[in-house]
Amino acid sequence: MSLHKSKVSVIGLGYIGLPTAAVLASVGHDVVGVDVSQRVVDVVNRGEVHIVEPDLDGLVRGAVIAGRLRAVTQVEPSDTFIIAVPTPFKNANQPDLAYVEAAACAIAPQLREGNLVILESTSPVGTTEKLATWLARERPDLRFPCRSDSSVSVTAANVSLAYCPERVLPGSIVLELVRNDRVIGGLTPACTERAVQLYASFVRGQCVKTDARTAEMTKLTENAFRDVNIAFANELSVICDQLGINVWNLIGLANRHPRVNILNPGPGVGGHCIAVDPWFIVDSAPEAARLIRTARQVNDDKPHWVVAKIEQAASAAQARTGRGVTIACLGLAFKANIDDLRESPSLEIVKQVVARQLAQRVLVVEPYIDELPTGLVGRSEVELTDTGQALRDADVVVLLVDHSQFMSVDRSSLADKVVIDTRGSWR
């Protein structure tokens, strides 16, 4: 069977799975997207998308119309299975691999000799080996390259397993899926080669070969590096606030050094990757991962610091006006110009403002959603509104996300407001 006519099943049609499925279909593969949500399946089969991501809608629509992409709720037999399901953490920041194991159990009945299974979900080191064990448990009639039964040699395996993490930027996912280098690690060199053949069909960057454990750690390392650097900026912002120094000016001056490149601070760190993945390293090596653990704690603490600043501003506004305070919170997403609320510090800040009853009214502006998320919906004091009304009615304005439409706000409209700019975008 030629490469461009292979059948690929993508398990999980979220922020990574759906773009991956659409890109695979665009280069000629017969792609079946699998999701537990009937709503998501129906949306995709109409040639539409359920997430905000530039260029994705046209890519999905074209693939569906061409008959190369369809969505189902039950796994079908395929040549390749790509798992792109969530890997959150449980209590005490321990990795939760329940979705990956569930995907393995769903795939197992449809496996046949010669299949390739690829895990893309960001995972702790050793997860691909666990995946092989789970599949072997469900299908003892097949031979996998990693079995708890040591009598099965890797050379006798007839199903290939590999790990290939995504490394894309929300807002540029479609472009980066094609352009970026990919790190691909199989449980054996033969597994690696099989996976490289698939990714080479659409990746214009380099497909870099390694083993599964190194590939898993590569993804975690990339995100932990970002987290540590953001933590430095966030800690610096807290220090500068105490010392009466404008942190944005300070960073601009420090970055004039040819070997200094400090990132911009913000209200915390969000998204499914940077806010989660470093904990996987800490869980794997708790005694050694001291810097990574501290960086995570610094970034997790930043939303609480922002809430304290909001509380101070609300108290001052109430003392000045003698009435109940209205707080406008601009943005809920974890970064600009997307609708992704996963692990968003902005959402956590708004929830704390509401829970602590810091205002009589809380006006939320998030241009990329149509309804308030769980935790805010049903609260009479919370209203999802537009930027104009929020700025007219608010006593305190909190910029949490630097969405493009917030950057065009007339600064004169903020003259009589208490402004808390967590992004430094209005400075």
CATH domain fold name of the largest domain: Rossmann fold
Distance between the termini: 59 Å
- Neighbour order of strands in the largest sheet: 3-2-1-4-5-6-7-8
Helix content: 25-40%
Plain-language structure description:
The structure is a single chain. By secondary structure, the chain is of the alpha/beta class. The protein folds into two domains: 3-205, Rossmann fold, CATH 3.40.50.720; 235-421, Rossmann fold, CATH 3.40.50. It has 14 helices and 13 strands. Strands 3-2-1-4-5-6-7-8 form an eight-stranded mixed sheet, sandwiched between helices. Helix 14 (404-407) links the parallel strand 12 (396-399) and strand 13 (418-421). Helix 8 (212-243) runs parallel beside helix 11. The longest helix has 32 residues, at 212-243. Mean pLDDT is 94; it is low at 147-154.
